[in-house]
Amino acid sequence: MFISPTELLSILEHYRYWIIFPIAIFEGPIIIIISGFLVSLGYLNGVIAYIVVIVADMIGDSLYYAIGRFWGKAKWVKKIGKYVGYDEGSEKYIEEHFKKHKVKTFLIGKISHGLGGTIQIASGIAKVSYKEFFWLSLLGTAPKALGLLILGFYLGSYYERINGYLQNIGLVSFSIFLIVLFMVISNKLKK
Q: What tens digit of pLDDT does each residue of 123-135 get?
């Protein structure tokens, strides 16, 4: 059963931020763009929408961090991980990488759609302090959310097309990540 655009706008008009918040936790970019579009239509306040999507995105980022921090070194993860080249050497590599390139890695993760969750999980595995994680994540989230809200404000009626572009960007980013990961694992196996 599909909902008509009129019914959807009626629901959004009534619940507004209560609907956007949970969606933005798990599916940030497109809901931020849609929120910008709703701001342009007068259904949402831009400042409140901006704060809501930032808080929601930070909660989503924190969930990924917690996965890495609390389950990244679990025995069952290590059992499964050995099949994809994840071992104690990988953990040491991740920890060293975050010591050397923490800021750059976080910002790349925020900019490149599709890699953010992986980088946030890796930061948890690398035991980056939550305080550092929070501020670096916020440093990347705030301008990205603002940019996506502005994009939605001016081009929001094209949200389906924009979502397609975001999915393609995510696919390319993830493909590049897999290629680099494969190269790293291949080099480790040659040693």
A: 888 888 999 999 9
